[in-house]
Amino acid sequence: MTKTTQNNAAINDLLGKIPSAKNQKNAHIIQEVVQPTERTKTGRKSHRKEGVEYVRISPAIPEDLKEQMDIAIKSTLKNSYPTIDTFVEQAIRVFLSKT
Fold this sequence. Notes:
The model has no long low-confidence stretch (mean pLDDT 83). The protein is elongated and about 100 Å long. The termini are far apart. The protein is mainly α. The chain has helices at 3-17, 63-74, 84-97. Helices cover 41% and strands 0% of the residues. The longest helix is centred in the N-terminal third of the chain and has 15 residues, at 3-17.
């Protein structure tokens, strides 16, 4: 017997020990269809008001002023102005009301 014949015989012996699908009960696996669920919102909460159109601005401010703003937003103003957008919006409103 050659090596390939021995290998083939060994493989056939191993394959003969594996039960075939015909011998197994319920050989076919039936999968159930899962209905998609409604998606929930993820990410940050939006603080925009409905019915208001917004525009993006990009002012350049001194770095130390930006750091002061970040500290204020994260500490004393956390509940009233939680984002830079809400903070800047209120700052502009206050500034314009004083002119």
